[in-house]
Structures are given as C-alpha cells and as structure tokens.
Request: fold
Amino acid sequence: SQTIHQWPATLVQPVGSPLSLECTVEGTSNPNLYWYRQAAGRGLQLLFYSVGIGQISSEVPQNLSASRPQDRQFILSSKKLLLSDSGFYLCAWRGWGLSYNSPLHFGNGTRLTVT
Amino acid sequence: RKEVEQDPGPFNVPEGATVAFNCTYSNSASQSFFWYRQDCRKEPKLLMSVYSSGNEDGRFTAQLNRASQYISLLIRDSKLSDSATYLCVATGGSQGNLIFGKGTKLSVKP
Reply:
C-alpha cells in the first residue's frame, strides 16, 4: 500500500530564517505531488504541484519554492521566512495517469509558526 | 467568484440528527468531485467520491447536480465521532488539480 511521510510535524522559525520541508511517498511510482497551505481559519491553497522529477508548477506567487529531486521526494523551501508564511503545510500525492478522477492523499502536515 | 463555495456553518446538531451540507462549484468543466473530512489540527482525509448518479456509503450520501453545479452530502443518524470539518472538492485547471472549499464545521452534541 502507498504511504506518504512528511516532516517535521511542527516547526517554529524566526522571521528571515530559511525553511525546508520534506515529503516522501512509498509504494507508488511517478506520482503527482502537491504542496498545499492552510492558514488559520482559511481554506486549502495549492502552492505547487509536480508531475515528474524536476517538473514544478507554481500556482501562486510567493516567498516559497519547491523541488523534486527524486521521483518520490518533494521539498518545499524558503530562503527567508515571512510572518505570513505561518500555516499548516500539507504534502499530497495522486496516482499518475489517473489524475482527473483520483483523489488526493495527504501527509500528516507540518504546522509552521514564524515568529 | 470563489471556485468552490460551501455553507459557512458551523452546524450544531444532536446525536441521531440528519444533517445536509451543500456546495457549489464555478468551473463547468470540473470532472471529479469529492468530500473530505478534516479533524481539528489534522490533515484532510477522503470521505467519499461523488458520482453523477449519486452514491451512498453507510450513513453518508453524496449527490451531484451538474446542471446546477451543485454537490451535497447527507449524513444520517449523526454520531459524536462525525464532528469535524467537511470539505467539498472539485477538479479545476489544466491539470485537473483539486480545488477545495473552505469547509463546513459540524459539531454533534450528546
């Protein structure tokens, strides 16, 4: 069966510090991978998605970047965090070739607080 | 116009009640629809897909009206454990990415 791992679970970082969140998927090949953010009291916002190694699409302009160095690894980064980057960050995967009809499966999420 | 809109909630209902959530989506090209459940401070989890003919999973019934671009979720015989936020989801965009509503919070009271 497929599993998705995301870490760390919680993170407190000062403004201006860098960020690296990592996500890995097991049990599937060539998944579509996603990063979402959920700010307090708000809905899920799609940040980035990737359909393959090195292929990154950004949905909104922001202070963040994403990379996919390996098939089942997805990384969210920032060089300098802003207060507005605080939120609940969720990595998700979806089966390749079934994208239009298949649901997303989320990792446990990382709760980031920028102070 | 928001892409996926839901009842603002919260819904506070007694155990055993029937509760209905409604949702509308703006993209007429959306092909797939889902309901997710999100517990407090947890990740969203798939509750059920929504099929054109309507579908049922135990106490949960989902319906889709493509003409009205409307999705619904009915929960019968509510349990305390049903308390959560329910997210309506539709596909959109060139990659069929999932667009989430903001969710409706349900509290089931004893």
